[in-house]
Amino acid sequence: MKKIVHILNAALTIPFGIGAYLAPGQAFGPFGFSLDVTGVMLAKGYASTSLGFGLAYWFTRNVSETSVSRGLLVGSLAFNAMEAALQLPVAIQGIAEAPIWVTAGAHTVLALLSLVALFQSRR
Question: Which domain holds residue 105?
């Protein structure tokens, strides 16, 4: 399960990070957000974080050290749970366009998978 969490985090964040850094307006446009100069800067910062996060997960997908694995799973749980908690209300209230449901769902699933993997690693 741990390896699946690593691969899914990498698969979702690396392409998003690259795309949102190179073309933030196009990356956030489908959600109904328009970005001013400050928004572009913040979007690129988020994109950089996403890319770094994804690369860390990709290159540690085969890690066997328990403390490293547990730390990464806790990070995944925190990131994905907080993103889900942010995006689900935005989706429910209709603040963002329909594509927000896809990312909110992905973050929710990854948070749950991270939690399952953490419990499995305790055994």
Answer: 2-121
